[in-house]
C-alpha cells in the first residue's frame, strides 16, 4: 500500500503550486474576469512546462503520467486557474498522438495558442459548448468515425457571458472549416481516451476547488464570533464541513484509484473514471455551497473570495452536461455492456495492494475456516457477539490466528501492519468478525502493559489461550458518548482492596464473558477525566447481576449491575486516577477500517436480487435507474475503501494523521446506512423478507447499519473529532 507520491512528483507539484499561488492568486483571478483567461499567466505557466506534461517526449512534451496531470489539476482547482487547463492538456496530447499539426502543437505548448476539445460527437451535436472556446483557435472533435481539427476564426469565438466567467463559447463546429486528424477505430479510440482523461482531470480539479473552499470556510468559522462564541463551535456549522471533507478527500482518492485501475487494466476502470468525475462534481458542488453558507451574508458579497469557488465548481464539470449522466454511464459500464477506451496511465506510485505477507495470512485464515468450520457452525455466524463460537475461538488461539494485532513478546505472530489488516479483513470475509476476539485482544494488550503478575497469570493466560473472553464496561446509563463522565464507583477498602458499585449499560457479551474491563470513578473531586481508574472485574463475582437488553439487530447486549463487588488491588490496571492513559493504550490497535467489507457484501446481495427480480418484463438490473443506484452504492463503497486505506497506511507508516480513522469510520457507517436504505427500497417488496439469501441479508444490513453509526463512537462525536483535528475548528465538547 502506498499513498506517497514519488520525489519527482512532489517537486513538480510544489513548483506548480508555488507558481499558481503567485500567478493565479484570487487578485489575478478577479482581474482576469470577465474573460476568464489570463494570457500572461498562461504563457508563463506554459514556460514552466505545465501544458506539455501529457505530451510524449518525442513530440516535445514532458511525457508524464495521468497522476502527474491530476496533481497539476488539483493545484489548478485550488487556485481557480484562469484558463481551460484540462481541455488544453488533453488536446495537446491528442494533437501529438494524431500528428501532423506540429506548428499548432508547439504554439499550444508555448501558451501562444489555445486548443480545446468538443466533448460530444459533432456529427450528432454540431453546435456545442466549448470550455475555452472563447479563446481557442482550434477545437478537436469527433465526427462520426473521424477525428477532426476545427479551425475557429476570431469571429466565431464569441465569448458567452456565463455563470463563472470562464472563457466559454457556443460554437457551430459542424459548419466551420475542419481538417481530418485521423479516421477509423484507432483515431476514434484515441479521441475517446482523451474524453476519459478529461473526466479524470476535471474530477481532480474539482477536488482541489472543494478542498480549498472547505479550508476557507473553516478559517472563517474559527475567527467569526456570534452569540459570544466562534461560529465553528456550532455543530450546525462544523459538522457539515466534516462530512464534506470526507467526500472531497474521497473524491480526490477516487481519481487516484481510477488511475491505479487503469494502470492495472482492471475491468472496473471505465466505471471508475465515470464515478470519479460524477463524484467530484457532486462533492465539490455541495462543498462550495456549504462553504459559502458558512460565511453568512458575507459569502454573498464579492468582497470575499468564496463565491469564486462556488461558481467555478459548477462551471468546470457542467460543460459536459448534467453530471447525473456520468452516474448513468458508470451504471452502464458496471452492469451493462458499455466498454470504453482508456488513456495510458503512465507512472503511478499509488498502490492499494497489501502485499505478499498479507495474502499469505489471509490464505492461512481462509484455510483454517475451510478445515475447522462446518456449515452448521457458519449458519450461526453473526457480525455481533451473537456470532461467538467458543470452539472456533479456542482453535484460532491454538493456531495463533486469534490475535493478529498482538506482538511477538506476547507469544503471538507480531504481524506487520498490512498483514494485520489483511487478517482482520479475512475474518470479516469469512463472516466471523466477532467482537469477542477484538475485545479480548484489546484487554489482553492492556493487561500485558499495565497488569500485575497475578492478573497476567490469572486472566491474561486464559485470554491468550482462547479459554476466556472479556467485555467492555465503559458505557453507563448516564454516560455514553461522554464516556469520561462515568460514575460507577470504585472505593478503596481499608485492606487496600476495591469495592465496585454502580451500573454499566450496553455491556455486550457479559453473558458470555468471564471478565469485564471497567472504567470506574475513583475520585469525584477532580475534573472528570482525571478521576477515573481501570479495573478487571470477574463477571462471576458476588454482587454482579447481568440482565439482557435486546436490540432489533438480532443482537443481545446487557445491562450489568455491580453491588459491593470486591476485587483485590492487583486487579487494577495502571495508576489510580490514570484510567484515561491506560485506556488510550488500546488505541494503538486502531484498524482505521470502516465498513467496506459488509458494504461490498450488501451490494453483491442487491446485485443478485436485481438480476433475479423482473420489472416491466425484464431483469431489474437492466433498468437505467437500478444501474445508477447500484453504481452510487459502488461509489460509496470505493470511497469507504480509499478512506480506510489512507487511514491504515498512515497508521502503518507512522505518517501525520489528521483524524483519518474517524473519517473512514464516519463516512463508511453513514453510507452503509443510506445505501442499505436505498437498496432495500430498490429491491422492495422482496427486501422486506428475512428469508435466507440476498433479501434476508439486505434486511439484516439495514438493521446492522443503524448500529454502526452509534457504537464505537457516534457519527456526531466523529464529526467533532474531524472538525477539530482535520479542519482545525474549535472544540465543541467539554
Ligand atoms: C448494540 C450496542 C452494543 C454496545 N456495546 C457496548 C459495549 O460492549 N461496551 C460499552 O461500553 N458500550 C457499548 N455500547 C455503547 C455505545 O458505545 C454507546 O451507545 C455510544 O457511545 C453512544 O452512547 P449513548 O447510547 O449513551 O448515546 P448518547 O451519548 O446519549 O447520544 C445520544 C445522541 O446524542 C448525540 N450526542 C452525544 N454527544 C454529542 C455531542 N457532543 N455532540 C453532538 N451530538 C452528541 C449522539 O451522537 C447520539 O445521536 C453499545 C451500544 C450498542 C447500541
From TrEMBL:
Official protein name in the record: Alkylation response protein AidB-like acyl-CoA dehydrogenase
Pfam families (UniProt xref): Acyl-CoA_dh_1, Acyl-CoA_dh_M, Acyl-CoA_dh_N
Gene3D superfamilies: Acyl-CoA dehydrogenase/oxidase, N-terminal domain, Butyryl-CoA Dehydrogenase, subunit A, domain 2, Butyryl-CoA Dehydrogenase, subunit A, domain 3
Acyl-CoA oxidase/dehydrogenase middle domain boundaries: 472-550
Residue ranges occupied by any Acyl-CoA dehydrogenase/oxidase N-terminal domain in the UniProt entry: 6-88, 356-467
Organism name: Sinimarinibacterium flocculans
Family stated for the protein in its record: Belongs to the acyl-CoA dehydrogenase family.
Protein keywords: FAD, Flavoprotein
